[in-house]
Amino acid sequence: MSQFNIEEEIEEKAGGEFERTPVPKKHWKSWKSFLGMYAGEHAAGTEFMIGPLFLTAGVSAFDLIVGLLIGNFLAVLSWRFLTAEIAVKYRYTLYYHLEKICGKKLVVGYNLANGVLFCFLAGAMITVSATAIGVPLEIEMPKLTDTMPNSLTWIIVVILVGAVISIIAGRGYDTVSKAANWMSPVIVIAFIACGIVALGQLEVKSFADFWNIWGEGSEPFPGQVKYTFWHVVLWSWLCNAAMHIGMSDLSVFRFAKKPSSGWTTAAGMYVGHYMAWIAAALLYAVYLKSPEARTFLANNEAPPVAPGPLAYNAIGFFGIIAVVLAGWTTANPTIYRAGLAFQAIIPKLSTFWVTIVAGSVATVAGIFPAFAMKLLGFVALYGFILAPFGAIIVFEHFFGKKFGIQPFYAERTKAPFNISVLLAWSVSFGIFYAISLYFDVFLSFVTLPAWICCGLLYLILSRTLQKRQ
To answer: Carries keyword Ribonucleoprotein (predicted)?
Structure first.
């Protein structure tokens, strides 16, 4: 028996997810498995938050409708021709792939940052589900400016939601995928129903009426950033930068039979990031006409964005169920990814228990509404931090031979620390984050330049340092 077969057998007997071996052929999955997962993950909890937040940013109709078409298409191309292509060739998790390039010591820091950021994102989705459960309990909903929990009941609800989500995620990829396949049709139907009902409540009778909901745009709400066409294009493309150009979804597509499974992300982008964002924005547009919302605006305050009450106002208790499920289908795979990141740091601990740890961190984060209420800015930040590491993998895969560098350098040389990776990321991060701060540039505008800079620097530094060594 070969060493690979021995490792594979150990993985299976241990109930593992092939964290340190390529996924064997008998575990490969068809495109249908990914279709359900991506439709469920991206027509989900974040959509109930992001759609309304676009309205608070004062976008125009053209900026939103056309900008989302282009940005989401660029995201699909990134998944198909970068992430899925590399995932199917090597079939490693992101964390093991990076370990082979960076070395064990360096990748520990990345895995920790990656896992924690994923936990915060999952926490935001637990917050979303809690707003739905809070409707029948008549819990006071968090405001856009809130950072701390506002009641003991809120904390208890978040803990219960987080516990259920963590257990599902801890059962592994198969359970996460099956949960998404069951929940996603219900969520998609709910978004469509919410959109239709909201159009009726807004008295939309023509395309012109629909267009005029956003019109030429408006001033952003207090405390919010004004979004233009390019904000929408780049943000919708790079809001999942950590997953596609950042290569996090190597951990997902390593199970795919073919790279063409990457096209299934279009279900998430156009059902979720297009239809669902717009439907959620319509729900918020209805709320903005209410006396409560007008009171907030009259006091120069941004009206709260609470998905549970918005959906309940449109389709009743079905809306509550949909929001709860929507939070789950985003948080489940996100906690699963975070668990893989932590498992790479503590390989002797089972995937189940590290995922429970990740779920616990996410639940604590979900208690604090700031992660959900500032979701646009948080997602831009975490993509900016993590995406350049994906450039290391992409540039080595596509251009490494032309530059004459050794692939998987740390593994080949037994080096625990690849200085080329650290320098490439640090320099690109430092330069472009400073540009963002000094010139007040939105982070999504500098994410792609930072990604390209990191990849090029890695090739140049690796060629120089490897020759010396």
So the answer is: no
